[in-house]
Amino acid sequence: MSQLKQISHNDNSAPSTPGKFKMEKSPYFNRTRWHYSLAKLTLWSFAFLVVILIFFLRSPTSSVPIDPSRRSLRTYNWGGSAWEKRVRSSARVRSRNGMTVLVTGAAGFVGTHVSSALKRRGDGVLGVDNFNDYYEISLKRARQALLERTGVYIVEGDINDEALLRKLFEVVPFTHVMHLAAQAGVRYAMQNPGSYVHSNIAGFVNLLEVCKSVNPQPAIVWASSSSVYGLNTKVPFSERDRTDQPASLYAATKKAGEEIAHTYNHIYGLSLTGLRFFTVYGPWGRPDMAYFFFTKDILKGKPIPVFEAANHGTVARDFTYIDDIVRGCLGALDTAEKSTGSGGKKKGPAQLRVFNLGNTSPVPVTELVSILERLLKVKAKRNIMKLPRNGDVQFTHANISYAKRELGYKPTTDLQTGLKKFVRWYLNYYSGGKKAVE
Ligand SMILES: NC(=O)c1ccc[n+]([C@@H]2O[C@H](COP(=O)([O-])OP(=O)(O)OC[C@H]3O[C@@H](n4cnc5c(N)ncnc54)[C@H](O)[C@@H]3O)[C@@H](O)[C@H]2O)c1
Ligand SMILES: *[C@@H]1O[C@H](CO)[C@@H](O)[C@H](O)[C@H]1NC(C)=O
């Protein structure tokens, strides 16, 4: 703008040039004026274009796609004494020998359940979540409201924000980190590969960098995934089986996470436990997962894609109910040993673990659909399709004997029972609370 003013000022001042030079100089002045007008026109057109562009980028109904990696450039409000007070109060321990846990991805499906379970038993809990729009933000907000009622505050921010994480550790000396923030989903990786690198790799490294440098270092439990088994065909999947054939970028970033965890444990003495979750489902679940959108589409009378493998082979999943997963997470936190480093340096060997958390009873996807039909009392329109080769594997089945031995992990909910609870929640949630819970 100041440039614009300057030019118009120069332009106005041109005719006031002393008259005696006018004859000789006039062609020069005309050219200058022409030049100035052109510059003015160009600038105004440019300003106009900028305004149009800003309008389109900000408009919610915009058809101009916003680069999702730009999400990281969003600025969040944090800091100040009222904010610090809120953070401290959320993280206050209320039971004897309770821990202070920073839960990343707290507005997510698993994060919400783990946070509320920790809070209920008297641990101090603080959440962090960037509330990204990978799936309906309103569901994340509803989970946040649920946690707020139990006294858990979720700080809105990105795990890539080093200053924010440092500040949080400055305000609260967390004893544990439950790291669940991630870009989940297998197929979305073809659409937005950058978001997987941003959250699952860069974000994880940033978190570990902060954890290794604070004093005392926290112990870290984090979510890996059963997808690391990839093209492995030996069942059940045991922790020692090969995991070097990922079938999706999502799986590859989780596998990378396991290797990164090894590095930070080795160099800095961070206590690290990775949990390979097997298809977690339940109330407050993720809308991008099959059991969730099958429910939605069956109710709408919309056909659902039911995958089968080559030669009409069965596609099956080791579905694991959320409460069982939560018990596994708490078991991992409770058995996590202290990190050994200080001042950013390793002082001795630290704990490094990886566990399967599954249900150890795979169910064919066709059976999942049948259970949903019975619960919803609606017949599904099944669209039988061949399993595409874009990330999903044919079969998952967890060997959970290691988690059983070390964490006392023992899943107790079968798919029928768990889906009944999911469907009850779903109907209640999407009727806007109008429909009473049976
Ligand atoms: N649900 C499953 O079946 C399953 C299976 C295997 C592994 N996992 C893993 O478990 C964890 C939790 O999964 P979920 O099902 O609750 O997923 P979710 O998407 O519901 O939760 C993840 C949360 O993390 C947040 N998040 C993402 N990137 C972030 C960032 N850069 N900074 C801050 N917050 C960020 C999201 O907003 C979201 O609320 C993830 O690590 C996921 O990969 C889940
Ligand atoms: C399950 O894993 C344990 C190691 O934790 C192993 O000893 C056992 O042989 C595995 N079982 C099967 C059936 O693969």
Molecular structure report:
The chain is an alpha/beta fold. The chain has a domain at 182-430: NAD(P)-binding Rossmann-like Domain (Rossmann fold). Helix content is 45%, strand content 13%. The protein contains 13 helices and 13 strands. It has helices at 2-13, 22-58, 81-90, 109-120, 137-149, 162-171, 193-213, 249-268, 290-300, 322-335, 365-376, 401-407, 415-430; strands spanning 100-104, 124-129, 153-156, 176-179, 219-225, 272-277, 280-281, 304-308, 316-317, 320-321, 352-357, 363-364, 382-386. Strands 3-2-1-4-5-6-11 form a seven-stranded parallel β-sheet, sandwiched between helices. Helix 8 (249-268) links the parallel strand 5 and strand 6. Helix 7 runs parallel beside helix 8 and helix 9 (290-300) crosses helix 11. The longest helix is centred in the N-terminal third of the chain and has 37 residues, at 22-58. The model is unreliable at 1-29 and 59-70 (pLDDT under 50). The site of nicotinamide-adenine-dinucleotide has 28 residues, from helix 4, strand 2, helix 7 and strand 5. The site of 2-acetamido-2-deoxy-beta-D-glucopyranose has 5 residues, from helix 12.
**What is the number of helical segments per DSSP (H or I, 4+ residues)?**
13
Structural class: alpha/beta
Radius of gyration: 28 Å
Sheet with most strands: strand arrangement: 3-2-1-4-5-6-11
Annotated CATH topology of the domain at 182-430: Rossmann fold
Strand content range: 5-15%
Number of strands: 13
Question: Mean pLDDT, rounded to whole units?
Answer: 88
CATH architecture of the domain at 182-430: 3-Layer(aba) Sandwich
- List all distinct small molecules, including ions and cofactors, that are bound in this structure: nicotinamide-adenine-dinucleotide, 2-acetamido-2-deoxy-beta-D-glucopyranose
Q: How would you describe the shape?
A: globular
Major β-sheet profile = 7 strands, parallel
Through-space gap between termini: 63 Å
How helix-rich are the residues, as a percent range? 40-55%
Looking at how many chains there are and whether they match, the oligomeric state comes to single chain
Query: Under the CATH scheme, which class of the domain at 182-430?
Result: Alpha Beta
Catalogue the unreliable spans.
1-29, 59-70
Order of helices and strands: HHHEHEHEHEHEHEEHEEEHEEHEHH
According to CATH, the homologous superfamily of the domain at 182-430 is NAD(P)-binding Rossmann-like Domain
